[in-house]
Amino acid sequence: MYTDPDDLKRARSVGANAPVEFAAWRAFQDAVDREDGAVPRRYRELISVAVALVTQCAYCLDVHTAAARRHGVTAEELAETAFVTAAVRAGGTLAHALMADRLYEEHGH
Question: How far, in Å, CA of 109 to CA of 107, rounded?
Answer without folding.
Answer: 5
